[in-house]
Each structure stands twice: as C-alpha cells, then as structure tokens.
Design goal:
Layout lengths: L22 E4 L3 E4 L2 E7 L3 E6 L2 E16 L4 E14 L4 H11 L2
Antiparallel strand pairs: 1-2, 2-6, 3-4, 4-5, 5-6
GO biological process, one term: sporulation resulting in formation of a cellular spore
InterPro entries: Spore_YabP (IPR012504), Spore_YabP/YqfC (IPR022476), YabP_sf (IPR038705)
Protein name: Sporulation protein YabP
Length: 104
C-alpha cells in the first residue's frame, strides 16, 4: 500500500507525505490537481482550492468540476483555463504593494 490510498489525517502506520502536490493542464481545457485539502469556493469563473502547498485560485470560463476525490485529495476541472495563481497569506501585502505601484 502506498500513501495515496489513506484518508487525510489517518497515517495508519505511515505519515502522509505533506508536499505531494501536482498540477497537470491539458490544452487549457482539462486541469488535474493533486494534494487538495478542500475546495473553498467555486463557480463557472473561479475555483479556490486549499492545497498542501497553499491556496490555489483557478480562473477561466465555463469551469466545472469533472471529478472530486476528497479521500485522495484529487480534483479535476474542465473549461477554458485563463490562469492559475497561488495565494499565500503571508505574501498578500507584498502583492498588493506591487499592484498598487502598477495601477497608480
């Protein structure tokens, strides 16, 4: 048995690898993400996901969830993907400052 078959928070003799997080984008149409802790919010234009390596915002058009496996932390999203942005809480002040400088 490998660590990917365990439920979150249930090490069962082994600790789960906390940094297993991959993003696979196919043709800007299909996005597969591993290492997802939870889906915070979503609509047809934006998904906000909490991953093991921070919050990930996925923006686009006609987005919908094709697959969700909470136990394994896998999410599949289909639609036209415009951008993927990691939002780190400790970096928000810096990014606002940068945007503030750009849009004066």
């Amino acid at each position: 048995m490998d660590g990917s078959t365990y439920e979150f928070g249930t090490p069962m003799g082994r600790e789960r690898k906390t940094n297993d997080h991959d993003v696979t984008l196919r043709g800007r149409k299909q996005l597969d993400i591993t290492g997802v802790k939870q889906v915070d919010s979503f609509d047809s234009e934006e998904f906000l996901l909490e991953t093991v390596q921070g919050y990930l915002s996925v923006r686009g058009e006609n987005l919908h969830m094709k697959n969700l496996n909470v136990e394994q932390g896998n999410v599949s999203i289909e639609g036209k993907i415009h951008d993927l942005i990691y939002v780190d809480q400790n970096q928000q002040g810096k990014s606002k400052g940068l945007f503030g400088k750009l849009f004066k």
